[in-house]
Amino acid sequence: MQSKIENRESKIIIVVAVGAFLALAWLTALPVGAQAPNIDDEVNRIAKTLYCPVCPNTPLDVCNTQACVDWRKQIKEMLQQGKSEQQIREYFVAQFGERVLGAPPAEGFNWIAYILPALGIVLGGVVAWFTVRQWLTRRQDATTAPEGAAIPKEYADRIEKELKEY
Amino acid sequence: MPRWAQFVVFVAVIGIIGFFAFGLRQRGAPALASGPAPDFTLKTFDDKSLKLSDLRGQVVVINFWASWCGPCRDEAAFLERTWRQYKDRGVVFLGIDYNDVEPNARAYLKEYNITYINGPDLGGVISPLFRIKGVPETYFIGKDGNLYGNALGPITRDSSYMTEREFVRKIDPLIAMK
Description:
The complex is a heterodimer of chains A (about 170) and B (about 180). Chain A is about 70% helix and about 0% strand. With about 170 residues, chain A is an all-alpha fold. The longest helix of chain A is centred in the C-terminal third of the chain and has 34 residues, at about 110-145. The chains are: A mainly alpha (about 170), B alpha/beta (about 180).
């Protein structure tokens, strides 16, 4: 009887301990999810979409030149002032031009950059379509052509003539 | 393939190749050194607007710089000193700040006590006109509005791009020009 009671108590203790552990884990995990994003992460996220002014084709977040360090610092200051990502991007374009953007805005002459790839695909498709059609037509001609069609007219006439004479 | 399709493909391919060739050529073109200087408007750090063509009749020295640029610091004191020597002789110095953040640029001007006209290359529109490759770069414009050479690196006492003595030798004849 005594051992049964002890057994039940130990089970209760284990269940309570596991419950307390899970509750603690849930409580400690919760603030992490609810936390505001780290400002340095925000800086890097925006910097990733802007390009270094000095090194060609290098995103700002991975560039270590002094110019890029200064620009990242500027982004951080603007975020601290409460500026939005859009406002920061607009500021950088106004200050340094559209070349700071990864892709040019889809307006004016820039449309060419967006149209050319599609145009290339369409043209490639047209060329491929005509080429395949030509191949298929030739193949069909070759398979449906009568056997005697390949005999030159000169021989055909001669055969005809000899058959008549015979 | 019908003739019209061949023609369309041919024209398109030539067009695409031409487009990229033009872009590469523009990118690889050397910095301006002669001919008419491209006109531009500079919004200065003290909120004034200045048009290059309005300076016709004066010798203009345009210096592209940035606060993050080490070699720019090597020539900063010399440029300011020379500007003070030449400012009453019909010479205008224009500093154009390239890809820089404004607080750093202002700190730089203060650090070297630079008093000649300075402003940022807003929107990055001025530097491509001169096809600059980096900073520092200096361009010399005569009284007639034409370019008379450039220095594509720092101007120091023993620079391989342009020495301080060569700089002075460059300006003096431009002042003497009618």
